[in-house]
């Protein structure tokens, strides 16, 4: 019997594992663009390699949810920890092709890892605790990014590739050993197989259009994630064009805002199954204004540059747990995990497109133009949120019927 509270010991151990797992990424997100650029790659190449991580993650999310339901999270978790360790060790000994392969491997691992932990949290916690559990999980995944960017730049400036090698091997071993020793919460599943479950992934995909909340939330997450992905892929390079701009400080500030907002505002995230259009629209507006400030940073300087980090950090902190929590209430229980996997896949696709699609724009025009384009996309997300005010919760639908 597990404690059904988001702060209980079993869940704290899961959050700690998430922190370790994503620590390497906080360093790689800065190291990889700088390293690839030093090898003579273009922005399109950088965006492609950086985007490969989340594109792969997107592709495997739906299968991750289904396989975890079938085989359980423990076996899946241990296999992916081994594969993740191999990917981390591959980075220091590779060129461009090896970086791409390692990003793909990491994408597969992240798809299964995040789905295993989030499904465990959703199924084990009572409804009133879901938003806090998901928010705390997300918080711990971002905590490494507070210090990771500065560590990455320090490694690049002083440690070189030898320091990078030591750090990656150490992280691979630490995460693997800790992960094998962390027990997953034992969850008793009471859901019986239904015809909706038996339809499988193909059947679920054909049903997406009939679930309006899933379509709207996925569209919002996709658009907003383009902004987040463009920041991750190109801030390490764009910061060099800003007077007194520093990529490590920017990413550290944005991560700090994400962590503080997710912890301080975790109880403000709606956990009632209702759609709060103005609340979601306000979150998206933070991302739109933040992206606009980024586009103006080269002309107006570091104050505008770092203000963008604050606004985008708030948007990134609040949007994902808000939409995920809402969907846990309104999606059909029999195929909820699979649909949640599809929703998270749209976030992965958006982050991927933030690198892959925005890189050519930066090559043809400039980083400022690219971030202006993402600001326009985020403004569209604000409109989508505000124009869909009448989505009903599952409870409301049942009452109407």
From TrEMBL:
Pfam families: MFS_1
Source organism superkingdom: Bacteria
Gene3D superfamilies referenced in this protein's UniProt entry, alphabetically: MFS general substrate transporter like domains
Segments traversing the membrane: 12-34, 46-63, 75-94, 100-122, 134-156, 162-182, 214-235, 247-265, 277-297, 303-331, 338-358, 364-387
Topology with respect to the bilayer: Multi-pass membrane protein
Localization per record: Cell membrane
Domain Major facilitator superfamily (MFS) profile: 2-393
Alphabetical keyword list: Membrane, Transmembrane, Transmembrane helix, Transport
Gene Ontology CC: plasma membrane
Major site of localization recorded for this protein: membrane
GO molecular-function terms, A-Z: transmembrane transporter activity
Leader sequence residues: none
Protein name (Swiss-Prot/TrEMBL): MFS transporter
Organism: Cohnella faecalis
